[in-house]
Amino acid sequence: MDVKNLDAPVNTVTHNRSEIDAPTGNIYEAISIIAKRATQINTEIKRELLEKLDEFATYSDSLEEIFENKEQIEVSKFYERLPKPHAMAVQEWLEDKIYFRDTTATE
């Protein structure tokens, strides 16, 4: 899933508690699932950013010349403007895009 194409809000938004806990019936379980997904999203974004910034890395030991790379700055600004991982995870949860299962249920 491409997390950069979500319509998650960039600013803080108040959500209805009943919408959050509706799929599980338990607000704490819903928040736990959302938090785990936010961690996954954060890891994915961080990996992508480090891969892109690694292209601009220079491995010299001299500090004679430090220059600004406009492309590197643009990449960094793009990732700074993304919604926060927890906002993305909540948006995915509300759009029913997160798969979860109850492992304690007996059949």
From TrEMBL:
Which cellular components does GO assign to this protein?
DNA-directed RNA polymerase complex
Q: Which organism is it from?
A: Leeuwenhoekiella blandensis (strain CECT 7118 / CCUG 51940 / KCTC 22103 / MED217) (Flavobacterium sp. (strain MED217))
- Protein name, UniProt field: RNA polymerase Rpb6
Keyword field: DNA-directed RNA polymerase, Transcription
Listed GO molecular functions?
Answer: DNA binding; DNA-directed RNA polymerase activity
Which superkingdom heads the taxonomic lineage of this protein's source?
A: Bacteria
Q: Which GO terms describe its biological process?
A: DNA-templated transcription
